[in-house]
Design brief:
The longest helix has 19 residues. The chain folds into 2 domains: about 200 residues, 3-Layer(aba) Sandwich (Rossmann fold); about 170 residues, 3-Layer(aba) Sandwich (Rossmann fold), CATH 3.40.50. The radius of gyration is 22 Å and the shape is globular. The protein contains 16 helices and 15 strands. The strands form 3 sheets. It has a 7-stranded parallel beta sheet, sandwiched between helices. It has a 6-stranded parallel beta sheet with strand order 12-11-10-13-14-15, sandwiched between helices. A two-stranded antiparallel sheet has the order 1-2. It is α/β, with parallel strands linked by helices. The two termini are about 25 Å apart.
Length: about 400
């Protein structure tokens, strides 16, 4: 049964919207938190919102016993680690929720895992979704097979009637290009939201470190594609003088394979270079502790290997006015446009050179532009663009 509401003297039916996010780490739970905070201030009137979210997200954000009018939490269990089983499980979850609650609209907070399903399966709901690391036909790094697959998926999804909007974070240029290439207007710019959290202290003598050294922070899900291992390689290329002036913080979880590589490289660096200072915390930290690390840092390292990748790290660093070193592409373009730091062709040597320049030179940074960037990436703007 659909519930109606009174509008201008007439009863209208509320639109039933499923917002689906089965993952919980990093920006996944952060996006759910952004939505919850928005709905607390702006309870939906014309919509019934169903949040299909991971049990861990519910626990992490302490949503078990909290309520908002016209917002229903639908717990989603942990998905299998096997890629095919994982995606099948999620697709099954979505179908069950749609059937149970008679959902009319679906918003996928990460649409990429559903591309094949969106291309082949006849959905009866209107669907919106956020695309991470979107296909860029200009990029030369794709294999022939991957390029062919992406061309098929993007072309097919663009033409499906149920596809309402496909959002791309922080990149209006790629939206324009994809709309032109696939003869549509469904690719839309979405400002990656920059939330603010109350700082929580972390059991670390940060003041003692900062008296002697500047802190370079590499934060998030640590991986090869994030440039984690290249940063470690770059430390060996720094002069002893620069090494003695820096402390490198690696904060975030990773796969077992990457963790073993990180531990091995740190051990080798500390044995070979006595001046090197590295702090490694291979685990998830709370939002408040995240604020602690950003606030305490002087330099943020994000030498990501993908040219098309956006990142929440950019927003968190910018709201704290921290100098950024990022890779060429979308992130590098934003960094240069707003004068937030340096954009480099990613390599260990170039990372080391940029760190050295940061230490010995008076590097350009625009606090005014940083404030402009942050003001354009509010939670309100993010949620309103998604919902309406």
């Amino acid at each position: 049964m659909q519930i109606s509401f009174l509008c201008n003297g007439k009863y209208e039916y509320r639109k039933k919207i499923l917002i689906y996010e089965p993952q919980w780490s990093g920006h996944h739970s952060e996006y759910v938190d952004n939505l919850w905070k928005y709905f607390i201030k702006n309870p939906p009137v014309k919509e019934e919102i169903y949040l299909g979210i991971n049990n861990k997200t519910i626990e992490l954000l302490d949503l078990q016993n909290r309520q908002i009018p016209n917002v229903t939490i639908v717990p989603v269990t942990e998905s299998p680690k096997n890629l095919i089983s994982n995606r099948y499980r999620r697709l099954t979850d979505v179908r069950k929720i749609v059937k149970k609650y008679k959902i009319q609209n679906i918003i996928l907070l990460m649409a990429n895992p559903y591309f094949l399903s969106l291309a082949l399966y006849p959905y009866k709901c209107n669907i919106k979704g956020i695309i991470f690391n979107p296909f860029n036909p200009h990029c030369e790094t794709y294999s022939f097979a991957k390029r062919l697959l992406y061309e098929f998926l993007y072309c097919r999804i663009s033409r499906r009637k149920f596809t309402e909007s496909l959002f791309v974070l922080n990149d209006s240029n790629i939206c324009s290009y994809l709309n032109k290439r696939y003869h549509t207007d469904k690719y839309k710019y979405l400002p990656d939201p920059i939330p603010f959290y109350e700082k929580e202290n972390f059991p670390l003598d940060i003041d003692g470190i900062k008296k002697k050294r500047k802190i370079a922070l590499h934060f998030g899900a640590l991986s090869e594609r994030k440039g984690t291992l290249l940063i470690l390689d770059s430390i060996a290329l720094l002069s002893p003088e620069i090494q003695s002036k820096m402390s490198f913080f690696f904060i975030g979880s990773s796969s077992e394979i990457i963790n073993n590589k990180i531990v091995s490289k740190i051990k080798s660096l500390e044995q070979e270079f006595p001046e090197v200072s590295i702090y490694y915390h291979p685990a998830f930290v709370s939002s408040g502790q995240m604020e602690f690390f950003y606030e305490s840092s002087d330099l943020i390292l994000m030498p990501y290997l993908s040219n098309n990748m956006s990142s929440g790290v950019l927003g968190h660093a910018t709201k704290h006015f921290k100098y950024l070193i990022g890779g060429e592409g979308l992130l590098g373009d934003i960094i240069l446009k707003y004068q937030l730091g340096a954009s480099i062709k990613v390599s260990a040597e170039n990372i080391a050179n940029s760190i050295t320049e940061f230490i010995i030179k008076d590097c350009e940074y625009s606090r005014e532009n940083a404030e402009i960037f942050v003001s354009g990436h509010s939670i309100d703007s993010f949620v309103q663009t998604l919902i309406h």
